[in-house]
Amino acid sequence: MNDNKRRTTIRWPRTAWLLAATCVFANAARAGGHFDVDDAGTLDPGQCQYEAWWGRTGPEPVKVLHVGPSCRVGPFELGLSLDRLSVGGVRSIVGGPQLKWNFLGPAADAPLSAALSLGAAFDLTRGGRAGGQFVLPVTWRPAGSLQIHANLGADWATGTGVRTGRGGLAAEWALDDKLSLIAERSRASGLWTSRVGGRFSLTPLISVDVSASIAGPQRVRGFVVGLNHEFSWR
Fold this sequence. Notes:
Layout: H1 2-26, E1 47-57, E2 62-73, E3 76-87, E4 90-104, E5 112-123, E6 131-143, E7 146-156, E8 163-174, E9 179-188, E10 191-203, E11 206-215, E12 220-232
Antiparallel strand pairs: 1-2, 1-12, 2-3, 3-4, 4-5, 5-6, 6-7, 7-8, 8-9, 9-10, 10-11, 11-12
């Protein structure tokens, strides 16, 4: 009896961490890799890409594995997001479709561009109400090597459907054609997060992302590493 109570006491904090991470990770904007603040760009016509990244955060810790393929179809970028989250043996799988449309400044060197990003998220492990996301990403290019990204939108949590606001600001500085530094400050699911990292281009179409983050009043630390690969489908 005492052993059963002890196991229950341990399990609840892990479940709470998993549900909180599901809200943050599963609703994160994906077109910017694993970074929380998305840019306004989309893939070129006839291009596809996949993003894969792994991260961990929190004292337990919570671990997440993400896979996200997407392709440009007409004026839209269509994608699929799939995340596996786990903490202390408790697991959750969340997935759903995504759509992004650049309606202003589609050129890669446009001084100002804006897009609409929509996504749905389904908890494939526990069910409940579907979640989702609506984001307006805006990118300003004050210089050829510097981009400022701003996001404004909302998330709907999987399971409960509770809506929370989302927003953020990021700066991306290209040191050269192989290395960019990224710093951002964002708020999602009621939690402020600061993140710094870099994007390393192995080839013109393959890059690696690495970042470290601090989130919330408890200053919870996290780390993520990801791979991005773009290719032609025609």
